[in-house]
Structures are given as structure tokens and as C-alpha cells.
UniProtKB/TrEMBL annotation:
Catalyzed chemical reaction(s): (2R)-2-phosphoglycerate = (2R)-3-phosphoglycerate
NCBIfam families, A to Z: pgm_1, PRK01295.1
Single biological process term from Gene Ontology: glycolytic process
Protein name in UniProt: 2,3-bisphosphoglycerate-dependent phosphoglycerate mutase
Gene designation per UniProt: gpmA
Species this chain originates from: Oricola thermophila
Role noted for this protein: Catalyzes the interconversion of 2-phosphoglycerate and 3-phosphoglycerate.
Length: 213
């Protein structure tokens, strides 16, 4: 058996609360988001895991979630690597727009396609589909994160709904159709234990998934 990797989606952000497309924009956590991160920390503390290293994105909502978790489990000084490869998908021209306003402008079906399809990017030159997001997440995972797990290290990855969905897609061997229906709850740790060949030996979700959105 190799090491363990824990994936956690950041707690609610100010723009989540306002129903805005966020992407690479950088709002802070809300009070609820802080509580969600604290609940994730409590679940990991009860689980009894400590980490060798942490990874997060360059966006503060993921970094703060990571910091709250590490403080909550008594590892506030753990080495933490930040990289934009783990950023949320770039929502292009949708970033900053209210989701309801976007539906009024482009229609429910089109906005749903932008949000949930696998390979249709939102409008704008920088807009990323989930497939595009995976194209930067997967190589980073393979070169920077996975080798540590295979060496037996325990690794925390605090990131975003779509960057983590891209990872879960390959870990859980989901099809493009299956991944479009997957939502990850905020602040809920997913504990993966990997085999020596990098396949998943076990997966545990620590906490209530009813808050997924």
C-alpha cells in the first residue's frame, strides 16, 4: 500500500454566496466558508491523519481553507506548495456575472452547457471547459503530487470544485458523462489510499455530502 491523499474543496466564498461565476477571480471565504473548513479539519482530526505536505492553488479561498485545516489538525507550519495548475477553471467572460443574469441573457440551456458539459468552454478567449482544466491539473498531479503519494507520503490537496472534479475523474475512472453529474461538497475531505500502481485502493468521504452543490 502506498500513501494517502486527501482532497478538499474550499469552503463557501463570498462570490459563491452571491451566486456569481468566480473562476480565477479571488474572493475571500465567507463566515460559513470558514466554518466549513473548520468542520473539514475536525473530521480529519477525528480520522487521525497527519500530513507530510500540502498543495493548494494561488487563490486565497483555497489557501485559507488549507491553512484552517492545517491549524485545526495541529500542523500550522506544514510545507504548502501553491500552484495555479490547481486553480478553479477559468470562466472567461462569465467571471463576475450573476448566474441568474447569465441565464436571462443566454438561456438556461446554454448556461447549463457552459457549467456542466465536459468539453464546451464558456465564452471568452481564456474560458476553460472541464477538459481544459484537466489538461493542466492532470500533468501537475502526475509529476508533483502522485510521486509523493507513491513514496508513502500523506498529502493534502485543498483546491476547487472543478480542479478537483478533474482529479476525481481519473481517480474514480469516471466517463466524461459521469463527471458532468458529479458535485463536490465544500469543506468535505475525501480520503484516497492508493496502490503502488497508482490505482485507488480505497476512498472515504469524511462528513455529510448532503451539502453538495
Amino acid at each position: 500500500m502506498s500513501g494517502t491523499m486527501v482532497l478538499v474543496r474550499h469552503g463557501q466564498s463570498e462570490w459563491n454566496k452571491l451566486n456569481l461565476f468566480t473562476g480565477w477571480r479571488d474572493p475571500d471565504l465567507t463566515e460559513q466558508g470558514i466554518r466549513e473548513a473548520e468542520q473539514g479539519a475536525a473530521a480529519l482530526k477525528e480520522y487521525g491523519i497527519s500530513f507530510d505536505i500540502a498543495f493548494t492553488s494561488v487563490l486565497q479561498r483555497a489557501q485559507k481553507t488549507c491553512r484552517i485545516i492545517l491549524e485545526g489538525i495541529g500542523q500550522p507550519d506544514l510545507e504548502t506548495i501553491r500552484d495555479q495548475a490547481l486553480n478553479e477553471r477559468n470562466y472567461g467572460d462569465l467571471a463576475g456575472l450573476n448566474k441568474d443574469d447569465a441565464r436571462a441573457k443566454w438561456g438556461e440551456e446554454q448556461v447549463h452547457i457552459w457549467r456542466r458539459s465536459y468539453d464546451v468552454p464558456p465564452p471568452g478567449d481564456e474560458g476553460e471547459s472541464l477538459k481544459d482544466t484537466g489538461a493542466r491539473v492532470w500533468p501537475y498531479y502526475m509529476t508533483e503530487i502522485l510521486p509523493r503519494v507513491l513514496r508513502g507520503e500523506k498529502v493534502l490537496v485543498a483546491a476547487h470544485g472543478n480542479s478537483l472534479r478533474a482529479l476525481v475523474m481519473i481517480l474514480d475512472r469516471l466517463t466524461p458523462d459521469e463527471i458532468t453529474r458529479l458535485n463536490l461538497a465544500t469543506g468535505v475531505p475525501m480520503v484516497y489510499r492508493l496502490n503502488a500502481d497508482s490505482t485507488v485502493a480505497s476512498k472515504e468521504v469524511l462528513g455529510d455530502m448532503s451539502g453538495a452543490h
